[in-house]
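Q: Got a minute? One more chain.
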Amino acid sequence: MGPMRVVIIGGGILGTAHALAAVRRGHEVVQLEREPEARGATVRNFGLVWVSGRSATELDLTLRSREIWEEIGGKVPGVGFRPAGSITLVRTPEELAVASAAAASESAEARGFELLEPERVRAINPALRGKYLAGLHCSTDAAVESRQALPALRAYLAASERYSFHAGTEARSVTDTGSGATVLDDHGRAFTADLVLVCPGAAHTGLTRELVGTIPVRRVRLQMMQTAPLGEPLTTAVADGDSFRYYPGFAGPEVDALEREQSQTATAAEHRMQLLCVQRLHGGLTIGDTHEYTEPFAFDVDEAPYEHLTSVTEELLGRKLPPIVRRWAGVYSQSVDPAAIVTRAKADEHVWVITGPGGRGMTLGPVLGEETAELLGL
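A: Always. Here it is, folded:
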């Protein structure tokens, strides 16, 4: 098949990853984004490329996605790719049991797992001067700059002269034409395409519902914050033992025992919390997060989770945090079926809706774009 014209609706990481996959295969891409700039989960996350917690069935895809991110980072420095790894710090015997099992698992070598004594943790990440029993090091984890990655990727795609981006453009309708599809926007323009990919993020209503009805996805809300510059390098991403509860890569009897122990604080349990912490290129720390699944979601943020995150981070760092300069909430789309990495719903022969990667959208975006291209014969 020769070059195709692909229209992508949605300017987040999933839409942009699909644009990247199509352009790399020689196709022409038009991408529409209803906001002046993507404002959803893509820019409200940690920027983590998180290998450590992915399930065994997702591991190969995740490692491939990391390869693509590293390749992109070499070509597009603006995405801020850095292979910093991560350390999950454990503070209880039950958490230590989970970390020990992970370090001894069949996939430990592929993930780059190693269980470290506190002295070795500090040798790798000297900023971690606080209290903990051990650290599970994952050398394959990485990070990108979530707020600058997409503009950098779009500039890279535009240089191909086969890509155009239309900000402040809302797609109002998608009509099958028999041999392709036509997208009408809110400026009265029509875009013809051989293939239309709708990547709506957490916008499950409106055009998404018109095209494919109700699909098996739900929305998840989180709260996060960012500090002023730390004043010293945090050489790896950092997680706490509560994170073991939320990632399928750690599932097993040790996590079951951890859950039975009910060692989470009341705030962490109520808000289904974990600590993840990443240093941005400007030196500040992005810290989170919470998980809320029942709608309607509040329009404001709750202070108790921030107090918990501050306390845990300070305990692990062994120092006071710099001032908090930003707090925010975000909502992402998650497939209801835990075995589904993403939900692809076919509207007709030439139109697909793709959403629901959950909190792994930044991690898996590039490989999901490749996978869709293979599935649809791009």
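A: The first strand starts at residue 5 and ends at 9.
Q: Perfect, thanks.
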